[in-house]
Backbone:
């Protein structure tokens, strides 16, 4: 494959090196002269100097025949527009953009720049998983499908322990799909009784997290209607 | 008309003043609080006293755009000093906020041309300068030949 990588920071440089080792053809574009000189000592003709938000720089790198463009500069606007012209002007099949500020992800989505990768988001997810102080862990967002999957650990004070799944008043737009108990997972039935220490997985419409948190959290009443 | 101008440099501030003078409602947004002073150059009263609005914030931030009134803007002008910013926020104004008229200042002639073909109204000062210089040289050459 012919891959153009834009931005020779830590991410771009290492990415280019890995791709070259996997026998891809790679051009790495960097617009800082000094950084370019440094990287060029190792990657030689595989690195090119210039501002990739200018069309002629992309054309000089052969974007017309590129199979993939990966924009990983430290500037979100650059990454967005490089990917936008790559796909819409030069009809590049695959693009990948780096999101530096997670708050800008909405703009990537608006411009149809997919997939976009945010290191901050990834680390946050990891953090949520390792330190589940929010009580609820996002496992998966299916943005296109408008669904998400979350995991909750039932603590001692959870309002639903000792309750039958069939008695829970699950919020509309949510469904319990799995229970992990003592390292084993199973699909609950209406007769499954939840226990302390269970990890439950639920699929839900976006925006239902708070409802679920209220139901499964310490103050949750388990949804038992009138006792 | 309600006109929102993002980027209050020499270009943005001049356009803002002219539009205010012509009786339009004008809101200006800029990252730099100091740019407020540039808006008031040559004005006899303060920008606000004359009915103008000024917001400090980045054009890429939805909160700032909304505080500046993008929801009810009839015209959106992107005139920051960065081409990339102007192109991105113009597309946001068009696609997310459905602003009827969106104009972006783009210094790079190649991209100004391409985005114009994609339906984005662009103004390219570099293109204008190139054309004027070429015309001036041709006129001068014509005079010397003649």
Residues:
């Amino acid at each position: 494959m012919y891959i153009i990588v834009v931005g020779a920071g830590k991410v771009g440089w290492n990415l280019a090196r890995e791709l070259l080792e996997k026998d891809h053809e790679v051009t790495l574009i960097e617009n800082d002269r000094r950084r370019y000189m440094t990287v060029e000592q190792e990657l030689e003709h595989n690195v090119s100097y210039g501002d990739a938000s200018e069309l002629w720089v992309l054309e000089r790198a052969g974007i017309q025949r590129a199979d993939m463009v990966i924009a990983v500069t430290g500037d979100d606007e650059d990454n967005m527009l490089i990917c936008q012209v790559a796909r819409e002007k030069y009809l590049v099949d695959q693009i990948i953009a780096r999101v530096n500020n997670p708050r800008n992800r909405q703009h990537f989505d608006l411009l149809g720049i997919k997939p976009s990768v945010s290191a901050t988001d990834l680390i946050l997810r990891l953090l949520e998983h390792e330190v589940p102080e929010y009580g609820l862990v996002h496992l998966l967002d299916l943005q296109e499908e408008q669904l998400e999957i979350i995991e909750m650990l039932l603590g001692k004070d959870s309002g639903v322990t000792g309750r039958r799944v069939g008695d829970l008043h699950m919020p509309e737009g949510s469904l319990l799909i799995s229970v992990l108990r003592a390292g084993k997972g199973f699909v609950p039935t209406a007769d499954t009784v939840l226990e302390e220490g269970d990890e439950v997985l639920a699929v839900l419409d976006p925006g239902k997290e708070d409802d679920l948190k209220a139901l499964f959290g310490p103050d949750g009443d388990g949804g038992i209607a009138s006792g | 008309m309600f006109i929102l101008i993002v980027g209050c440099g020499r270009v943005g501030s001049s356009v803002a003043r002219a539009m205010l003078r012509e009786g339009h409602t004008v809101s200006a947004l800029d990252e730099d609080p100091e740019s407020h002073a540039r808006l008031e150059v040559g004005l006899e009263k303060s920008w606000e006293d004359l009915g103008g609005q000024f917001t400090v914030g980045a054009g890429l931030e939805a909160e700032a755009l909304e505080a500046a009134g993008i929801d009810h803007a009839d015209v959106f002008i992107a005139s920051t000093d960065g081409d990339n910013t102007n192109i991105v926020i113009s597309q946001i104004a068009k696609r997310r906020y459905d602003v009827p008229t969106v104009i972006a200042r783009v210094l790079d002639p190649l991209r100004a041309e391409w985005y114009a073909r994609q339906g984005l109204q662009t103004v390219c000062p570099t293109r204008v300068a190139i054309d004027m210089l070429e015309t001036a040289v041709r006129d001068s050459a014509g005079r010397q030949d003649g």
